[in-house]
Every structure is written in structure tokens, then in C-alpha cells.
Amino acid sequence: MNTPLISLQNIYKIYGSGVTEVRALSDVSLTIERGEYCSIMGPSGSGKSTAMNVIGCLDSPTSGKYFLDGENVANLEERELAHIRNRKIGFVFQQFHLLSQLTALENVSLPMVYAGTPPAERQKLAAEALDRVGLGERMNNKPTQLSGGQQQRVAIARAIVNRPLLLLADEPTGALDSQTTQDVMAIFEALNQAGITVVMVTHEAEVARLSHRVIWFRDGEVLNDHLAPEEIGQVTAVG
Amino acid sequence: MDLTESLKMAFKTLTVNKLRSGLTMLGIIIGNASVIAMVGIGEGAQKYITEQLQTLGPNVMFIIPGSRETRELGGLEVPRNLVVADAEAIASQVPSVVGVAPEYSTQSLVIYGNRNANVSVIGTNEDFPRVRSFEVAQGRFIRELDLNSHSQVAVLGSSLAERLFDQNLPLGRRVRVKGVSFEVVGVLKEKGSNLGLNYDDAVIVPITTLASRLVGRRRSPYGIEVTYISVSAKDQESMKTAEFQITNLLRLRHKVRNGDDFFINSQDTLLTIANTITGALTLMLAAIASISLLVGGIGIMNIMLVSVRERTQEIGLRKAIGASQQDILIQFMIEAVILSAAGGVIGTLVGVSGILLISALFPFEAGVSIMAIALAVSVSGGIGLFFGVVPARQAAKLDPIVALRSA
Ligand SMILES: Nc1ncnc2c1ncn2[C@@H]1O[C@H](COP(=O)(O)OP(=O)(O)OP(=O)(O)O)[C@@H](O)[C@H]1O
Ligand SMILES: [Mg+2]
Q1: Nearest to A114 among B16, B325, B327 (CB)
Q2: Is the ipTM, as predicted for this complex, more than 0.85?
Q3: For atom 27 of ligand 1, which residue has the closest CA?
């Protein structure tokens, strides 16, 4: 497998038309190799989330080619995209998005339900995933009985339970304090060590510095796609 | 994702919001209960009427005078009523007939001592008990001799006898009707109300005596007029023949030229008419009840639409972690179908209890119709499917990005 995990080629995402036209992504070309740990940064409205959604197969670009794991996903059907999201991608969101009526264990099991995993195995794998994020003790708590950091860890467990190739996190620490931010970043680091490719959007330089590569967006374009973490300060000044 | 998972998931969601699920089901419960109860009542009424008609007597036909319009009024034709002579002619000239009982009934006060009762006074002949399946409990019935000699004798219905005489023996005593005194010669066995006629609360006298002493109205030139004539045929097979022969005979006697001035109703034709009416009634009740089922279905759609809106984020999240549009569609459809099917089952139980209650309170037994239950449950399941489609499609089509952003 020598193909890059992610290869965006001349991706455009355009909302509206005429005077109201918004180019959320404008001629974005980007390659991310297997096993990388990248941050996406940039000013608000620069297209970071849009790019994440395209990469995560939640959204399809207006034009351009997107190869994920060597496969052109730009013209796949809804059903096949759902399958890819289920098997190859794990999502972590700023607002956690846990289902409040389900326990931590049930929340983590959910992707396996859609994957058709048998119930007994789901139980085991979900428990393992929760162990991996350090929540083995809290499996039967409902989200409301967990702190923000704990909820985000449940969400991470849910994202990795189907052993995805890619973990996408859009401002995963945006709603967390500095201590829990560090916990979450430690988990990301460990997951990346274990071989999962991690791409996250963040506004926080300290968080981005923990990744190995920073991609800088501005006005829907990639301003710099190989910034070393130490260079962040300079660009921020420019951006 | 397989169906058992979808079912489990739907049950989980519905039990989390018990109050809402219950209220949503209420419409379907009421709809189902009313369909089942209504159909049950309709069928009960039908059964009741059939039973009543069957107690009229075996192989009985009723000859009823036609409406005035069907009789020729102009020219030399004289309007003709049914008369006792018609009954006599039938008895002597129609071989397939074994009994003919003309009846004339009027309403009057019957007095015994210081007691009285306002009841039907019925004039008839000696064939009456045989034709109409009545039995005499005490004494005797009217005889041919009584008719010929216009005797002042009376046979009492069972409850009238009780009202006038209590425990005393009525036989041999005299009652007064319109100032005429009658000797009680017999008491009928109790038979109960029958199509609104209650012979238990009546006094029966010879029709000749009734005509000459009580009614006092102008006799038709053709003889004593009657309200109707009951005829009993030899057996079930000869009913048609008898009807045909009687029709011909009466047409001849009445010199009918245009339309018949009488009707012949057999127990069969009465049953057919009654069944048509009660059948239509049952259908109408079911149709009215079905409307509430429909309203229940719309209620489900309404709540499911609200639910889709409320659970936008959940739907977005499910899509993000790998649910396809079909998965979401099935999830919401199943919720709607569970609501309506469960409502259907509960409604059925309520409806059946209602029927049992009605049967306990009213004289007729409302039937629990398996057909109606099967129909109601499957229809409400279908309603769930039908009205679940719109909200479920809306959920399935949600753009996950928009859905996730709607915090
Ligand atoms: N559905 C939409 N319709 C129209 N315009 C949209 C839509 N979604 C995003 N946009 C526009 O696209 C641009 C990029 O949005 P995006 O959410 O990707 O920005 P972002 O970099 O994630 O910003 P932030 O840091 O604030 O999250 C913005 O100008 C936004 O207004
Ligand atoms: Mg964003």
C-alpha cells in the first residue's frame, strides 16, 4: 500500500451561486500519508470544517477528485459512503454528540451496530475501547453523569471502536479546559503511535504543536500544507 | 443493520419517552377500540334481530294490506282492505297452507275489579297459536265455536294476567274492555317481546266479537277488516308455492288490475330485509370508527415529525458513524409501526372489554369478531407504515452536516 491515505486533487466546494456564491474550498490539493498526525489551522470561516467533512465523506465536493485509501470516493453512492464512514473513519466533534439516553458502553457500541457486529462481540470491543481511553470504570454511566473530558473520551472510544484508518477531530478540545485537553491529546498521541492517522482542526497553537504537521487554511485555500509545528507562531501573526 | 437491532433501538427510544409514546398511541387505541366495539354492536344487533325473526314461528308468512296509493280509487273500483273472508278463502283454497290467522289489533283499557291496564286487544281465530307458535299455559284458546257465536271470551297474555290477577286464578273471571265484559278462558305462556309486539301484555278475543262489539267501525262491504293475516305453510319447501297461490287468489278476489294492494312477507324476506339494514348499519358504524383510526394515524405522523426535528443531531451523528439513509428510514418507520401496532393491540383489548360490558348491560350479545380484530390490528399497523413514511423519509434525507451543526 504505497498510495497516500488521503489525496485531495483540485477540490472545490461552492455554496450558492452568483453574488451569493461562497467558495468554502477553492482548488484545494492536499496529500496526507498513512500514519501521519496533522493539525488543520486557520481563521474562522477559512474552510477547515468543510475540508474535514469532505475528507470524512460526510460531504461531497462541488468538483475535484478525492482518493481515500486509494479509492476515488467523489462519485460513490450514499450507501457506499455510509459504509466508508463506518469502517474507515472515526469522527470526534467539539460537542461530543453522545446520545443522552444511552450509556457510555452503548454509545461506543453504536458504530458496531451499523457494522453488523454480533452483540456479544460488540460488548467486548466497546469495553476494550473504553479501557483504551481510560474509562473502563465508567462504562454504564449516561453522558449526563460524566464530565466534559470524560464525555469526549467516550466519543473518542466510539470513533476508534471499528478500528478505522483515519481519526478526524474537528476542534476536539474546543469545549475542554487545559487539563482535560492534555488528557485528550495524550490519547490522540497514543492512537497515532498505534498506527491510526489523525487529522484534527484546532484554534489552539499549543494543541497544534503536539501534532507532527500543520496545514494552514485561508479563504478556502491551503496557504501552507507542511508547516512545522514550531513555525505556527509566525503564520498566526501573518494570518 | 438487521431488523432485531432496529427493533431493539426503536423500543429503547419509545420507552425513554413513555408519556409521549402513550399519548401518541391514544389515537390509535381509541380508533381500534371503536372499530371493534362498533362492528361488535352491529353484528350483535344483527344476531338479535335474526333470533327475533326466527321466533315468529316456522314457515310463517304475513300478508299485509298495501298502501292506499296502490289501490285503485277512481271508477267503479272500491278500495279493498284485507278481510276475514280473505283469510277463510286462503284456508279453504290453498292446499299448501296448514293454518291461517287473521289479526286485528287495537289499543284499549282492560279492567278487572279496581285494576286496569292499557294494552293491545287482538282479535284473531283458533289457528293463531299454531301459526304463531304460541302455547296456552292455563285453560284453553279461542275455539271455532267462539268465532261463530261471537262469544265474549278472552285469552290473556302472561304478564297481563299477572298484573290483573296477581296470584289469583284468572280462569272464569270476567274482565271489561270498552264496557263489554269477557270471560277469561285461558292464559298464554310467556314468550317475550318480539319485534316490538308483546303478546305477553295483550288480551286476545275472537275477531268476530272484536268487530261486532268493540271496534264498532263501519264494516267493509267485503266483511271484517284485519290488520294482517299470518299464514303458516306445510313446510319450508312449500313456502314459495303457498306465496304464489295466495298471491293469485288475492289478486282474483281483489280484482287487481294494476298493482297488488297487499304484500306477502315471509320470515325469509323479513330476514333478508333486516340483514340488509343491519349490515348497512354495521358498515356505517365501522366507517365512522375508521375515521378515528385515521385521525390516530395522523397523530402518529405529527409526533414523528416533531421527533425527527428534535432528534436532528442524533440523526446527524448516526449518519456520521455509518448509518445509511435506509438505516435511518427503517429506524423511524419501525418506531411508527410499533406505536400504531401496540396501539392496535391495546385498542383491541379495550374494544373487546367494551363489547363484554355492552353484552352484560343490554339484551343482545355483541359479538367479538375475529375478522374485525384482525382488520383493526393490521389496518393500524398499515396506518403506522403509511403515516410513518413521511417523517422517516424526512429523517433519512437530513444532511448530516446540517444536522450535526444544529446545536
Ligand atoms: N451550508 C453552507 N451554506 C453556505 N455557506 C456555507 C455553508 N457551510 C459553510 N459555509 C461557508 O463556508 C465557509 C467555510 O466554512 P467552515 O465551516 O468550513 O469554516 P471553518 O474554517 O470551519 O470556521 P470555524 O473556525 O469558525 O469553524 C464559511 O464562509 C461559511 O460561511
Ligand atoms: Mg469549523
Answers
A1: B327
A2: yes
A3: A44
